[in-house]
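pls read this stuff:
=====
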Amino acid sequence: MQMFDLTGRVAIVTGGNGGIGLGIAEGLMACGASVLLAGRNAAKGAAAAAGLGPRAAFAVADVADRQACGQLVADAVARFGRLDILVNNAGTSVRKPPEDFTEAEWHTVLDTNLTGAFLLAQAAYPQFVRAGRGKIINVASMNALLGAPHNVPYAASKGGMAAMTRGLATAWAGANIQVNAILPGWIETEMSAGARAHVAGLAESVVARTPAGRWGQPRDLAGLAVFLSAPASDWITGTSIPADGGYSIRA
């Protein structure tokens, strides 16, 4: 058995047209997988898939919609013949003091980040059962563990993802489906660029606190995603693994 060989495996990566999702997709493809990227920006997604080569494709999908999730899984099977890996990476955030959030803003964040991940897991489950195995990677955040004053709905959604990971792992272990979460720290993406613009001195404070001495890059998540997608992690399920350059352990 090749512990990290993903040849012949098929993955869906939501939010895969940029940032962390694209970094993960690149890692999976480097180890042999075919990948269906999913997102709401068709032009950006098509360009990302073209850049990855013939084993990549893109589908427009709003993960907060149950029908769209089912169609995304069907698209992956129609295009590549099977589904083995689901990376729930799609996410959004609204930054403001918690007392100023509207109910609609709360639901926008929770529906995309948490409900969408659950709906896609449900949609993928029959394909995993049919294949006799499956891997789900939920891209949560260190905000699942750490407090911050201006992104409470985002933190709630990511904490919910970590709890959902444990629940799905226990429910589906008997079907040979492993469910794990990645907890990224501060990664340079379009979303974190908004945070840097909103919080004065954030870029410098992250570097100062992080033992690695830098912000993370999307490619820094690729190796962990490959591990959690590959046979090497078949005995690991229900875990949430930090990937933050040591930010969370700094005293």
Observations:
- The chain has one domain: 10-189+217-242.
- Residues 103-131 form the longest helix (29 residues).
